[in-house]
Amino acid sequence: MAEQEASGLQVLLSTLQSSCDKDVILNILSVLTDLLSLGTGRRIHYVVSKGGSEALLQALATAAQTELPDHGTLLPLLRLLARVGQRDRKFGLKVQKAEATDIILSLTRRHLGHHLHLTHCLWVLRVCASNVTTGTMLGINGAMELLFKVITPYSKRHVRTVRAAIGALAALLKSKSNSRRAVNRGYLGELLRLYQDWHRNDVSNNYIYIRRGLLLCLKYITNIQLGRETFLGSRGMEILFTSVQDCLSCKNLDPIITTATHILRKCYPKEHLPVVTVRSSYSFPLPGNASAEPPCEGSEGKWLKGDSESEGEEEDEKDWDNEDVESKEEDCDLETDVNKLRSRPVLDRPEQELEKYEALCAELFQNFQELEFESEEKKSLEDRTESLPSAPSHFIPSATSVKHPNCRWRNQSVTEMGPDPGEQDFKVPLQSWRKKEECIWDKNDENRDIAEKAQDKEFCEEKDPARSHVFALCSLLKDSAWYKKVFYPHCEASIDPSPEGRLESSDLVRNLLEKHRGDIPFHSPCFYAARAQCVKSIPGYRELAFPDFWGHQPPPYSKPVLERKHGLQRDKVLDDVRRLIQPGDVIGRTVFDLDDPSSLSSPAAPGCLTFFSKFESGNLRKAIQVREFEYDLIMNADVNSSQHHQWFYFEVCDMKPAVPYRFNIINCEKLNSQFNYGMQLVMYSVREALQGRPRWTRAGQEICYYKNHYRCRSAAAGGGGVRRRFYYTLTFSIKFPHKDDVCYLAYHYPYTYSTMMSHLDILEQNRNPRKVYWRQQTLCQTLGGNPCPLLTITAMPESKNRDDLEQFCSRPYVFLTARVHPGESNASWVMKGTLEFLVSSDPIAELLRKCFIFKIVPMLNPDGVINGNLRCSLSGDDLNRQWLAPSSQLHPTIYHAKGLLYYLSSIGRAPLVFCDYHGHSQKKNVFLYGCSIKETLWQAGCMVDTAVVTEDVGYRTLPKILDKVAPAFVMNSCSFLVEKSRASTARVVVWKEMGVLRSYTMESTYCSCSHGLYRGLQLGTQELEEMGSKFCLGLLILHLKSLPCSKELMAQAALLLDLEEEITDRAQRRCSNSSLESDDEPPCAEEIDYDTASSSDGEEEFLELDQEIQECLSCVEGETEDEGVTTGQTCSSRALRGLYISSQPAPNSTALPLGSPALGLCRGFESSPV
Ligand SMILES: [Zn+2]
What we know:
Radius of gyration: 36 Å
Helix content: 40-55%
Number of strands: 19
Bound molecules: zinc ion
Shape: globular
Largest sheet: 7 strands, mixed
Number of helices: 47
């Protein structure tokens, strides 16, 4: 606004404050009214900034001083106050300063008999009360009592006044002390009665705003514990629940339903999870004196017996308010200490300890005299492979060639390039390959032994003689658990007396396997079973999950994200509330309980699903049948812990086909989930698999995720205090495809430890040993006694002449790790893609192998994966928070991975790239987290002296490349900030302590992409694997861009990458019209939480009051129910309305001149009789 006008406004305001001339005041009010009648809150904010509130309050004080206030000025003044006040954040303070609370209260009292005037007073009262302190003061001075004189049961008279009174009451009840006072005076019951009355009588839904206003009062009053208790005691749950049922069919009533549901959720009595203890069913004795989480968390039982009464209200209310502290904390979490950000190599162990890692880098000391041995070995393996029917024999294609239509060109380029001329040259006498391999960790022969075992084994003997009849194929499929007997892995000492039964079963398996052999690339059921036998688990698994055993082949299509139905969550929540209202309908039968072994062996009740999850990565703890087709499910906590539930994986059978079953996983912990944004879980049907469709598919309808009424008291992280823990429900319904089927449901595509181990077996057997240097060693044994494999992959030297051997040894390292968090199975699928690409015959892979030596730990947390954990290892620790000071005893995989990195760094061979693969449960897309000092300081708002802080921006190159070459990858989602809370993650420690510039965490969504080729599609394993192979491509391009390369390499790369660029260009063009947007999710369709401020606060509320004022003005004419206008005045009122309409300023005008027709409006009010 121009300076002149500004000063004009100030003149007006100061005149308003000082003048006693009625006409002058009227004119000024009229101008202000016109000025603000247009458009947005921006003008009001402007008036506020020029002292508008103070001037209006002063004018009010002056007007109120007179014995008989002049309503001609009072009414427009009150309207202006209401409109300006509600947008002035400091209005409450200004009211107090002007000592106006008493004025407003007494004005209200004085006008109890005149509804139009009263309504105006109530608007201002409401605005004053929106400041908690002012509201409390008003409450102390009797405002609520006054309002209850105005709020009446259902009546068509004075509805505007009643509405304004309810609005003011709701504002007052935002103050907790007012709420307490209201409860003590019995107003809560009164509000419920009023609500019921309006609900009952407002049959045509004319007064929705009054009904909703009453609900808002109830909503605020139940923010305090006393309010909730009184609400329950007054049968509030029943009353609201019943009334909501009447509203469900009418979409206009959504505001009522939403508010009522909010109150119902909040007041639902809190309970503990129906488990003996929240502590994991599995515990693991830790070496030494180390203890996992403090035991106080586990001793839940005492509290369960019901001393919840002892909770102080204060603590309670604090909790409601500080609900999402966790998510807010992130903002102030940035590391701003430059010294802490600076790379400073430190060693967390004696230097001589590093020597032992030399054995894990044999490639650096190899003289390749044994090259021939390598090919001999290959030959003998091939021989063995051929002689065994069940052995896998996979053509290793270029890993990407089968995956994306865009990549088909690669096959061409293979033929174009022709056979490698160097291939013939590997005839070198063999020497001691094995000798050098021996090191303290190396279980080198283990792999081969297991592979042999797999081939020789009759791993499918029947153990239960009584049921051996099931192995006739036709009857077999009727028994849903048949395969368990068939594929029983632990069968060393079979005591089966019936040799025929055994033969039959193994024949059957052979038949089945032969039929399916080769169907699934890089998977072998035999290898899987052999590997699974060697796994050491806490529960001592004796069964295999069929999908892991049989294998998964991605479906030929991608599924779009699920569209969310309107009011879905509300319906589910009301269904939950119904359990409380109609307890007789609830079955409440425990059908599976890990803590009660007898429940596992007893036969299932008829008509009831049978659950099972005692297999690798399974983690169902308890299943309770709630209604005929509805089950509550509880997931087991991480071993030695009492938390971390989000991942799930279990088996279901005895289902009826085509019936929607509702499942509620009631102990989820994350604040929000992609399940609210279109993500589906995954399902695998055994029958489908046997019919040739062995696949996990996205499944589940009516999916939503919301906070439920279960609570847990737990030790605060680090603080020693007690923090309330909240649980969330993931609900979904599933229609099973077949009768007599066995189905598996999981959070995401499972990928077990045995899957990984057998995958490595297959890769090793199928690689081309003349080209691919492949070594699998054991990095260390885990706490649980499982080997953690370390892979070394690079190209075999071109020849054994010195130059080539030197080139071989001097290749830079790339260090990749994955699956430190067991629940992030997507990370394993990406790693699978990386590994398959790296050993493939794809020319890009060949080139890449010549560029780098890859050190890969494909699973940093085998124990966690095996035992169905979400986040931790057996020690109950998040291993990705241990990198600063890993314990060799408690965190061996981290300790030795870090040791190996130290070693590489100590010999000047720190990796060019370090990347740890993860999954992200709350975001879409695939993206990288990296580390940058400057970006962190900038983001934190610190002054950066660029002369002092210099930084290589090379950390941005790889993500930029990936953005171009990988369809699922989005640069915009990447972040390079160093957070304090991430100080002990792999990414930050490797960056800081090893000085690796390109140290990343790669996060893959569980859900879908917001940009590019896969926009709106849920990612499958195919897309995840593709990401893994594209990551490799990105590395090659990074090499070409960042490192000096030979001419030959450049030429080869140019040939390959030109083509690649063309492809990516095309892909880019195809999706270029999709605009870039923030990767933050839009607010949930429905509030998943019921403790946070309602969306009705803020701007929406302003508009509501504006509208209320506007409606009141424009309807004054037809106001037959208000005594303000009698029939005698109709004529003049009609004239008044005409004036009002004509006074609406033209869209572009800012202010009308003094004496504009709007003045008539103000005078018009004056003319209405008192
Ligand atoms: Zn993670």
